[in-house]
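Hello,

Our lab assistant flagged a job as stuck in the queue for most of the afternoon. It eventually completed. Since we weren't sure the result was trustworthy after the delay, we are filing this so someone can double-check. Below is the sequence as submitted and the structure that was eventually returned. Let us know if re-running is recommended.
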Amino acid sequence: MRASTDIDTLSDFSDRYGVALTTGHVPAIAGCYALPGLVVGERYRYLLRGTQDGPAICTVVRTG
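-- returned structure --
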């Protein structure tokens, strides 16, 4: 995998990721990663997979 080190690209990613995390928008968080993926939060963990319609939560585990 080749990741860009362009400052504009990195700033855009940081902005999208920060907004997704602070709002708890799981599909937007998943869109920042390759799928399948795992989002770990304070109380829940979400296993995500890709679908034709975009990211989808396939498992939710309560941890706290």
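-- support follow-up --
The delay was a queue issue, not a problem with the job. The result is valid. The beta strands are 37-40, 44-51, 54-62. The two ends are 35 Å apart (CA to CA).
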